[in-house]
Design brief:
The relative contact order is 0.17. Helix 10 runs antiparallel to helix 11. A hairpin with a 7-residue loop joins strand 11 and strand 12. It contains 13 helices and twelve strands. The protein has 359 residues and is of the alpha/beta class. It binds nicotinamide-adenine-dinucleotide, 3-isopropylmalic acid and manganese (II) ion. 3-isopropylmalic acid binds next to loops. Manganese (II) ion (MN) binds next to helix 9.
Length: 359
C-alpha cells in the first residue's frame, strides 16, 4: 500500500536524525511490501526564514493537507530567529490548523538502557503521556498594555474549552481502558491555578463516570514531577494540559535514560487532517553538526506513524529492531554518547535498519 509522507527536517539535529528515520522506515516498508513516498520540504527552518523572513510559504496548508502524514524533525534556531516566532510560525500552526489535539508521548525504559534512577529495569517504567495539544496555556490571547510605563502589564490567558478538554480526556480514558493496568493519572494544579484547573478536574470526574473500569487519580503537577522520579512505576496513562504535558514529556524520558529516544505523535484522531510525527526533543544546538545525535526518537516516531497508517505489524517490527539494538548495549552496538556509547547518528541508524532487515 502507498502512503504519501511530507518530510520536514527543520533545524539543527532535526536534519541529522530525519535521514536515519527514513532509512529505518524504508527498511521496514521493504520487509512488509508497503511503500512510503517521501516528499522533502525545506520550510519551517531558520534557512527558510533567512531567505523569506517567514517560516512557511503562503500555501503551506493546502500543500501539507495533500499528505497522509507529516514526518517532522525539529524546528528552532534562536540565534537566527527568536523561538516564539519560529515555533508559532510553524509547528504550533500545524498542530492547530490540522487539529492534532492529542500529543501522544510514550515513555519506556528500554532494554539495555540505564535509567539515572537507581535499580530500575525494563518493565518498571512504561507509561503514556497524553498531552492536550491545541489550547490551554499555549494561547495567543493576551498582550501588553501600558508598554514602557511603570504600569507595564502583560497578560496571557489560558484557554480551556469544554470540547477541547473533553476530547483529549476521552482519548486518554480510552487508552487507559485498553491497557492492562487501566489506570489514569490526571495532572492538575487546582490549588494555585484556581479557575482553569478546577474546571479540568471537574471534566476528569465527569469523564471517569463513562469509564468505570479505569482507576483514576490526580496529582498536583509539582508533586507529580517528584513522583515521576520517586515512583515512575506507579504510572500508566498520564493526561495533562498543554504545558504540564510538555514538561512531563521531557521529565519522563529523562527518567528512562535520555531525551534522545522519546517519540511523539501529534494526532488528529478524527483523521480529517494529516497527523504529525516528531521526536520529543528539539534542534539541540549544543550538539548539532557533530553527527552524534541519537536518532531513536525519530525512528520510534516512524514506528508510531506506521501504526497510525494502519500497519501495526510493521510498526511493532521496527520498534522491536530498536529494542534489539539497544539491548546489545554500548559495547556491542554503536550507541550514541547520550547512551554512553561512541557511535554516530548514521552508525546507529544503519545498525537499526540492518536489524529491521534481518530479524
Ligand atoms: P532540546 O531538546 O533541543 O535539547 C535539550 C538537551 O537534550 C540538549 O542538551 C541536547 O543536546 C539534548 N538532546 C536533545 N535531543 C537529543 C538527541 N536526539 N540525542 C542526544 N541528545 C539530545 O531542547 P532546547 O535546547 O530547549 O531547544 C533547542 C531548540 O529546539 C530551541 O529552538 C527550541 O525552541 C527547539 N525545540 C523544538 C522542538 C520541536 O521542534 N518539537 C522541541 C523542543 C525544542
Ligand atoms: C515540544 C516542544 C514545543 C512545545 C516547543 C518547541 C514549542 O517543546 O514539542 O515538546 O512546547 O510544544
Ligand atoms: Mn517540549
Amino acid at each position: 500500500m502507498n502512503h504519501r509522507i511530507a518530510v520536514i527536517p527543520g533545524d539543527g539535529i532535526g536534519k541529522e536524525v530525519v535521514p536515519a528515520g527514513i532509512e529505518a522506515l524504508e527498511a521496514t516498508t521493504g520487509r512488509f511490501g508497503l511503500r512510503l513516498e517521501f516528499t522533502d520540504f525545506g520550510f519551517a527552518s531558520a534557512e527558510y526564514w533567512q531567505r523569506h523572513q517567514r517560516m512557511l510559504p503562503a500555501d503551506w496548508e493546502e500543500t501539507l493537507r495533500a499528505f497522509d502524514a507529516i514526518y517532522f524533525g525539529a524546528v528552532g534556531w534562536p540565534t537566527v530567529v527568536p523561538d516564539h516566532i519560529s515555533l508559532w510560525g510553524s509547528l504550533l500552526q500545524f498542530r492547530r490548523t490540522f487539529d492534532q489535539f492529542v500529543n501522544l508521548r510514550p515513555c519506556r525504559l528500554m532494554p539495555g538502557v540505564r535509567s539515572p534512577l537507581a535499580d530500575r529495569e525494563p518493565g518498571d517504567i512504561d507509561f503514556l503521556v497524553v498531552r492536550e495539544n491545541t489550547e490551554g496555556e499555549y494561547s495567543s490571547v493576551g498582550g501588553r498594555i501600558f508598554e514602557g510605563t511603570d504600569r507595564e502589564t502583560v497578560l496571557q490567558e489560558t484557554v480551556m474549552t469544554r470540547i477541547g478538554v473533553d476530547r483529549v480526556l476521552r482519548f486518554a480514558f480510552e487508552q487507559a481502558q485498553n491497557r492492562p493496568r487501566q489506570h489514569l493519572t490526571s495532572a492538575t494544579k487546582s490549588n494555585g491555578i484556581a479557575i482553569s484547573m478546577p474546571y479540568w478536574d471537574e471534566r476528569v470526574a465527569a469523564m471517569s463516570e463513562r469509564f468505570p473500569r479505569v482507576r483514576v487519580d490526580k496529582f498536583h503537577i509539582d508533586a507529580l514531577a517528584a513522583q515521576f522520579v520517586l515512583h515512575p512505576e506507579w504510572f500508566d496513562v498520564v493526561v495533562a494540559s498543554n504545558l504540564f504535558g510538555d514538561i512531563l514529556s521531557d521529565l519522563g524520558p529523562a527518567c528512562t535514560g535520555t531525551l534522545g529516544i522519546a517519540p511523539s505523535a501529534n494526532v488528529n484522531p478524527d483523521r480529517h487532517h494529516p497527523s504529525l510525527f516528531e521526536p520529543v526533543h528539539g534542534s539541540a544546538p549544543d550538539i548539532a553538526g557533530q553527527g552524534i545525535a541519537n536518532p531513536i526518537g525519530q525512528i520510534w516516531c516512524g514506528s508510531m506513524m506506521l501504526d497510525h497508517l494502519g500497519h501495526s505489524e510493521a510498526a511493532a517490527h521496527l520498534l522491536g529492531a530498536v529494542e534489539d539494538v539497544l539491548a546489545l548495549g554500548p559495547k556491542e552496538a554503536p550507541l550514541t554518547p547520550d547512551l554512553h556509547g561512541t557511535g554516530t547518528t548514521a552508525e546507529l541508524g544503519h545498525a537499526i535498519a540492518e536489524r529491521v532487515r534481518e530479524r
